[in-house]
Design brief:
Length: 350
């Protein structure tokens, strides 16, 4: 049971076992330089799931976001992004440096950009001394730097409408998109419909070693493999990522919902113990917080690890742990899991 991971956190032996199972299942076709075979099967499967015409495999999400905004922008080089997004903070200014785009950060310290702020930037861009149109609005949801908080759906819909009225294209960094339907009540197609392109990670929820899917309309995806190759992203053998990811796509939404049922039951059982308290975020998705009082956080973590329960590092003073919900929670009944927490807390009392 792993409370520190987006997915199952497969170790090398488990990973190798999944791969050999997939290959042994028969009719397995590898790709050639990230084209054809199981890569094509992966692309068409995700295109359908996201309600798009087509999709392309890319080796990383960083490249997916970059190629998306690069192509969507065309000649309109200004791109509105969230200040807290991966594209703005964690991609080494790739879009600025390698593609000459001007990324404008919105909603500093928040997850959801306001429609007012978007409108202000569109007005400012229209009213400059030199015409500088906004070409793309890129949104990340859930927002990794904000504890996977989701962007408000109605605001997304309003921003999408506003952009489309003005011919501005829209990209969704949905690295963890598949966790949103449970919390927002809006399905994958509903999200896909608000954006021209959607990126989903293959390694966060679907346990591949790496990889990303970028979905869009047929005209957008056509020929994009040339840019993938230009950026050194055409892996000669990409099939291992696709093989593992495809294994875990079916049933993901149901398993995630069931995992939250286990988490809710675990929280209820531990609340009865009195030493554990819990918090959730107002627009939270996969993360909740647990605080253990009267317990040494490092010792608690160590004792749980000895019982196959992995936690992230707790805060040394407050004893607060960030807890991720994923399908590893389905491996044990909540009652057994709670007993392990209580036993570990007894041994870690201070
Ligand atoms: C929200 C988000 N977008 C994009 C990425 C980039 O993905 P990759 O590591 O596959 O380049 C990440 C990865 O951590 C992410 O969390």
């Amino acid at each position: 049971m792993n409370f520190a991971s987006d997915g199952l956190g497969l170790d090398p032996a488990e990973y190798a076992a999944v791969l050999s199972q997939v290959v042994a299942d028969g009719d397995f076709q590898p790709d050639n330089y990230s084209q054809g075979g199981i890569i094509r099967a992966l692309e068409t499967r995700f295109a359908r799931l996201l309600g798009k015409d087509d999709a392309i495999y890319l080796p990383t999400g960083t490249l997916a976001n970059h190629l998306a905004v690069r192509k969507l922008a065309g000649n309109d080089r200004r791109v509105l992004v969230q200040a807290e997004s991966h594209l703005y903070n964690d991609s080494g200014d790739c879009a600025q440096t390698l593609s000459g785009l001007n990324l404008v950060p919105l909603a500093d310290g928040a997850s959801t950009p306001s429609v007012d702020e978007v409108e202000r930037w569109l007005r400012r861009s229209d009213g400059g001394r030199v015409e500088t149109r906004v070409g793309v609005i890129a949104i990340e949801s859930p927002v990794r730097r904000r504890h996977h908080e989701m962007v408000d759906f109605d605001t997304l819909a309003r921003i999408s409408r506003l952009a489309r009225e003005r011919g501005i294209r829209l990209h969704l960094d949905g690295a963890r998109l598949f966790n949103l339907p449970l919390h927002s009540g809006h399905g994958l197609h509903a999200y896909g419909a608000l954006f021209d392109t959607v990126y989903v990670s293959l390694w966060k929820h679907f346990n591949a070693g790496s990889g990303a899917i970028l979905a869009g309309d047929a005209g957008f995806i056509e020929g994009l493999f040339h840019q993938r190759r230009m950026f050194g992203g055409a892996l000669p053998h990409a099939w291992p990522s696709a093989a593992v990811a495809l294994r875990f796509v079916d049933g993901y939404l149901e398993d995630y919902a069931k995992s939250w049922q286990v988490a809710d039951r675990l929280v209820a059982l531990l609340q009865d113990d009195g030493r554990f308290s819990f918090e959730t975020l107002p627009n939270g998705t996969s993360r909740f917080f647990m605080t253990a009082t009267g317990v040494d956080p490092a010792a608690l973590r160590e004792r749980l690890a000895a019982q196959d329960v992995v936690l992230s590092h707790g805060h040394p003073d407050t004893g607060r742990f960030a807890m991720e919900v994923n399908a590893t929670l389905l491996r044990l009944p909540a009652e057994v899991l709670a007993a392990r927490f209580i036993e570990a807390a007894n041994g870690a009392a201070r």
